[in-house]
Amino acid sequence: MRRHALTALVACVFVTLWGVVLTEKVCYFSQEPDASQSGRLRWVMPGNKEDRCACTSTRPGPVNVQPVRWSHQPFYTDTPIFTNDQEDIHDYFDCHDACRPNPCRHGGRCENLGGYFKCHCVDGCGGDRCQVQDACCSNPCQDGGSCVTRGDAFECLCFNGFGGDGCQLAPASDYTEGM
């Protein structure tokens, strides 16, 4: 019994650490001559803005004595940032996402439209930020039931034999089978 518990604990720690490793993206500022600055040595980070905004930490990298041919226009700077703070990284590279944190209330889905956002509200919610709600906004119907607003109240239309005010009662045949 102890051996199985230890094996499960080791597996849990491994999966947790592996998940952390997979979500980390270390980015490196290297130094190279900048042709647009008469070959002056400058800090550079390759990749496009999306790549840079995915960095979870930034570190100093190698010095290249010859300019590198990058597939995307690299980011040149005279003042690099070396940090593990993602908020600082996002500020530095101007990676602000209008949907973080999610401005949409009551389970609304935020769509980033490049500097501004649009909320897609769940049924029963409305407004620019899904802040206006009727009785169905909280999604009170369970097991696939549909909610219909009736004035200030709601009614659940239950499917597949489910019942109750919120479709929470399973069909009677589910209770009698196997007895």
From TrEMBL:
List each copy of the EGF-like domain by range. 96-131, 132-168
Q: Where does the secretion signal sit in this chain?
A: 1-23
Q: Name one GO biological process term.
A: Notch signaling pathway
Q: Enumerate the PROSITE patterns for this protein.
A: ASX_HYDROXYL (PS00010), EGF_1 (PS00022), EGF_2 (PS01186), EGF_3 (PS50026)
The protein's name: EGF-like domain-containing protein
Q: Which domain of life is it from?
A: Eukaryota
Recorded hits in Gene3D superfamilies, A to Z, give: Laminin
Record keywords, A-Z: Disulfide bond, EGF-like domain, Repeat, Signal
InterPro entries in the record, alphabetically? EGF, EGF-type_Asp/Asn_hydroxyl_site
Disulfide pairs here are 121-130, 158-167
Organism field: Patiria miniata (Bat star)
GO-annotated molecular function: Notch binding
